[in-house]
Write a structure and sequence with these properties.
This protein is mainly alpha-helical. The protein contains nine helices and three strands. The two termini are about 40 Å apart.
C-alpha cells in the first residue's frame, strides 16, 4: 500500500510538472498575443492563466512539502506553506479581476480607441485552448483520487472556459466588426475570476483563523465519541486544519472508572482515533482521557 501511494504521488508530480510546462509556454504566447492584437480579453485570459500557473505550482509544491518530516521547530511540518501561497494567489486573482473590469469599462464607455486585431487574437486563443485541453487530459486521471490534484484540474478547467470566451469574441469581431465584443469577453472572464478568488481567500481565512473546516460537523463528532463504550462525557473539543484537507482534532474525554482500572485506555484511544479517521477523515487526533472528578480541577470553561 505504501509503495502504491508513493508511486501515485510521484505520478502526480510528473503530471503537474508537465502541465506547468504546457501552461507556462501558453502564458507567454498569450501575453505576446495580447500585445500584438491589442486584446483586453486575451490579456485577461493571460492573467487568469497566470493564476492557474500559480495554482499548479502550489499544487506541485504541496506534494513535495507534505512529504517533509516535522521538526522540533515545525511540529506540524510545512504544510501551511500551501495556505500562504494560496493567499498570494487569491490576492493576485482579485487584482487581475479589478484591473480587467476597469480596462473593460474604459473601452466600453469610449474612453479608449484601442484597435483589436481579430486574426492574431483568434490564433493565440486557439493555441491557449489546445494547451488547456492537453493539461486537462493530463490531470484528469488523478483528479478523482486527490483533493490537491482536483484543485489543479479545476484551475485549468476554469481557464479553458476563458479561452472559449476569447475565441467567441474573436469570431464576433471577424464576422461582424463589433470590436466591443473583446471588452465584453474580458468582463465575462473577470466575472469568472472574482468568485474563485473570494472563495480561495475565504478558505485561507478559515484555516489561518483556525476555524473548524466547513465540511466538519463538530456536533456529529461529539455524538460519535459519546456513543463509544466507556465514555461518559466529552469537552474542550477543538477542530481546525493545518492546511486544506488536513483537519486536526483534540478533546478531553471523561471515562468510566472501570476503563482506567481495567487498563482499557489504550483500546479506547484506538477506538476513538479509528472512529475519527474512518467516519470524518481526521487522521491527526489527540485525546486526553480523564476521570469525572478531574473536571473540577480545570480552570477553563468546557465546550
Amino acid at each position: 500500500m505504501g509503495h502504491d501511494h508513493g508511486h501515485a504521488t510521484q505520478a502526480n508530480r510528473t503530471r503537474l510538472s508537465i502541465a506547468i510546462g504546457i501552461i507556462g509556454v501558453s502564458l507567454v504566447v498569450e501575453i505576446v498575443g495580447a500585445w500584438l492584437s491589442g486584446s483586453l480579453a486575451l490579456l485577461a485570459d493571460a492573467g487568469h492563466m497566470f493564476s492557474d500557473l500559480a495554482g499548479l505550482i502550489i499544487a506541485l509544491t504541496a506534494t513535495v512539502v507534505a512529504a517533509r518530516p516535522a521538526t522540533d521547530r515545525q511540529t506540524f511540518g510545512y504544510q501551511r506553506a500551501e495556505v500562504f501561497a494560496a493567499l498570494i494567489n487569491g490576492l493576485i486573482l482579485i487584482a487581475v479581476a479589478i484591473s480587467v473590469v476597469i480596462g473593460a469599462v474604459i473601452r466600453l464607455t469610449g474612453q479608449s480607441e484601442t484597435e483589436v486585431h481579430a486574426s492574431p487574437l483568434l490564433i493565440v486563443a486557439i493555441i491557449g485552448l489546445v494547451a488547456n485541453i492537453c493539461a486537462l487530459l493530463l490531470l484528469r486521471p488523478a483528479a478523482g483520487n486527490s483533493i490537491n490534484m482536483r484543485g489543479a484540474y479545476l484551475e485549468v478547467l476554469g481557464d479553458t472556459i476563458g479561452s472559449l470566451a476569447v475565441i467567441g469574441a474573436a469570431i464576433v469581431i471577424l464576422t461582424t466588426g463589433f470590436v466591443q465584443a473583446d471588452a465584453i469577453a474580458s468582463l465575462a472572464i473577470a466575472v469568472m475570476i472574482a468568485p474563485r478568488a473570494f472563495s480561495l481567500l475565504r478558505d485561507v481565512v478559515r484555516v489561518l483563523s483556525e476555524s473548524a473546516p466547513a465540511d466538519t460537523d463538530v456536533a456529529e463528532i461529539r455524538k460519535h465519541i459519546l456513543g463509544t463504550a466507556g465514555v461518559v462525557d466529552v469537552h474542550d473539543v477543538h477542530v481546525w486544519a493545518i492546511t486544506s484537507g488536513a483537519p486536526v482534532f483534540t478533546a478531553h474525554v471523561v471515562v468510566e472508572p472501570a476503563v482506567l482500572r481495567g487498563g482499557g485506555a489504550g483500546k479506547l484511544l484506538d477506538d476513538l482515533g479509528g472512529c475519527l479517521s474512518d467516519h470524518f477523515d481526521v487522521a491527526h487526533s489527540t485525546f486526553q482521557i480523564e476521570p469525572a472528578e478531574h473536571a473540577a480541577h480545570e480552570d477553563q470553561a468546557h465546550n
